[in-house]
Write a structure and sequence with these properties.
Keywords: Membrane, Transmembrane, Transmembrane helix
Number of strands: 4
Distance between the termini: 40 Å
Structural class: alpha+beta
Number of domains: 2
Number of helices: 3
Order of helices and strands: HHHEEEE
Largest sheet: 2 strands, antiparallel
Shape: elongated
Strand content: 5-15%
Strand order of the largest sheet: 1-2
Amino acid sequence: MSTTFLLFLGAVFLAVLFAAVVLAFFAAGASVFAVAFGAALVVAFFAGAGLEVAALSSLVEPVDRRVLLRVPRVDEASASPVSSARFRLGGMVVYRN
């Protein structure tokens, strides 16, 4: 599944949960003003959290996976990996000193 689809499902789930909570408060006899004020607080909280996540994610630089999984050069003289190089071993990056 793509990330966009999962985010969409999460948003739908939160909207349904929010609607159920609002209806439950109305069923319990809460006033319209109290429910509207509580709903505004919840929406403001999630909007602020979304803006914070967007701001933090803009600070992260994308990582090129090809750089992390690069196979090192082989020293022609000894036919062994260079001592400070990193190489792949079963899908893991291994550092050799």
